[in-house]
Task: structure prediction
Amino acid sequence: MASSPSPRRAVIIGGNRIPFARANGAYVGASNQDMMTAALDGLVARFGLQGERLGAVAAGAVLKHSRDFNLTRESVLGTALDPATPAYDVQMACATGLEAIGSLADKIKLGQIDSAIGGGVDTISDAPIALSDGARAGMLALGRARTLKDRLGAVASLRPRDLAPAAPGTNEPRTGLSMGEHQALTTQRWGITREAQDELAAASHQHLAAAYERGFFDDLVTPYRGLTRDNNLRADSTVEKLAKLKPAFGKNLGEQATMTAGNSTPLTDGASAVLLGSEEFAAQHSLPVLADFVDYELAAVDFVSGEEGLLMAPAYAVPRLLARNGLSLQDFDFYEIHEAFAGTVLSTLKAWEDPEFCSERLGLDAPLGSIDRSKLNVAGSSLAAGHPFAATGGRIVATLAKLLHEKGSGRGLISVCAAGGQGIVAILEAR
Amino acid sequence: MRETLPEVPTLGTLYASAAPRVLRKVTSVAPDALPDTEAYVEAVRCSREQLTAYQRLVGDTVREELPSVLLHGLGFPVALWLMSRKDFPLPLLGLVHLRNEVRQPRVVRPDETLAVSARAVGLTAHHAGTAVTIETRLFSEGELVWEGRSLYLAKGVRLEGVEAPPAPERAAFVPPSTTARWRLDGSTGRRFAAVLGDYNPIHLSALSAKVLGLKAPIAHGMYLAGRALAQCAPHGTGYAWSVDFATPVFLPGTVEVNRTSQPGGVVRFSGWNAKASKPHFAGEVTPL
Result:
């Protein structure tokens, strides 16, 4: 039997994002397309891609206007890239950015394309407001009406309460619980303390601030609308200050409520983009190579029945990814675990240490074990930077690729949870 | 004795016809007081509009199956016709919905024409009064496709010659973990009524509920069951389900919901009030 040729490598050349802004602040008035274009513009300028026809650009947004049906293509048309560069939208909740990048890496490995940009964007400040179902039904009926009588009937069917707009929320459609309320259940299930969550949050702010201080983000971030840094960042954040905040989620747990606005990510606006290519593409264009995009894996869990926590899917994806690549959880120099909530990171880590969970839920002979916490989110993560849903994947990939390149050797593991009980994880290797 | 009705009666008319008897004080009822009448309607169909409106209302998917609670709703007016007649011994308005038990051997498609048969099958002594069981059956070309028993309580009515059982000892309610949360607005009862025609005044508005002695309107039990089944019921197969109602859900209100999978595909569900720590309902679904 002929063995299939091993695919070529997909490498990460660089990344760019605009600073992430707390919702309803610096980026009010900027649309998803505006911000995605800004992130792409910065990337194009940094790597001299003006007039270049790339293999594909894939990006997406979680909260999306219906007018943005071609968000990524429209963004590309607003940049200096060759207009002959194809583009498409990806939508997988908070996994959008990493799924876009991972599937582009696959196309490069298979030789279908030589270069690509993957990323994502989200805005809360310019979120789509929808008509209520009642108003929509009436207006659609009006559109279908052919006679005056039908038209009057359609108008008469509208009720004043129908005119109240329906704003998008972060509630899971099937449970009616917000993401924070879901995580509060998981946080309690794993017995994660308030102190542990606040420590992780303080570390995230301190790490991100230190990374900015040493210029780490100088070639990863393009200023936008007066911001040069993520404006959720509080360099002086401490466990003591965080301890003063009142619980924001799981309030029905009373004394046991541990999740606050400080150890949960804020609603944020922002965009990110990552440039990938084959080794040949990088060499031909004299571009740097930061890391290999080695592999990625998706998972999903049954949270609707309450069998598993909403944000626990990455705990299931990682062992599958490790097995496929012949690695153990300890074979990494950096861990980038998206901080949707401090409780999410800590619940995931605790699950991997738990013999019962690893045996019964993951089907493993032995627990995955602990990680060296000094390797976790070393340049800060979402608690400090903020989390514009679809933009987080691109932020993490660019950050980790640069960390690996700085170190000059080793591997990094990425883990991102997403709405709908989904998760995406990936491995990068230094170059 | 079968009484064949020309068509499905209108619930509003039935409630209105029962209204004058609201003031009739019933204190006791004989064990054999139920009339031996089978109410029968030959041909009932669910319109596409009604099916879609129901599926939207309870958060179900628009698909080619008649949900079991909607089938209950199709047969309910025939049962209510029995209960609103002068020879029905218990006062219709004020009956408390205690329990439903349904067996639906197969999927029922939207284009099936159904015959409905309803009978009052028994009176039982209850610690708080007398309970009546109404049995409703739906047939498709002679094949039994849905059968349900509904238990209603007439409070303060003594069943003659039968000693009322003592009130059961209730263990303190321990709420399970929340797997979903329903936020029900003040129009929940009106929206359910608009789809299924059940304009019982206790569900409609603060004023109409107060007239009948309630502090606020309450959600239809079948609305709560419908939402639970929209999440828990299997598709493409028949199933049996039951639900017990403990305390009413006042509108507007928030219901904490738990669902737990059991061996054999059984799903248990329950709803409760977190603030008062009181159970509203509990039930289960078993695929057949």
Notes: The mean pLDDT of chain B is 93. Residues 2-287 of chain B form a domain with the Thiol Ester Dehydrase; Chain A fold (CATH 3.10.129.10).
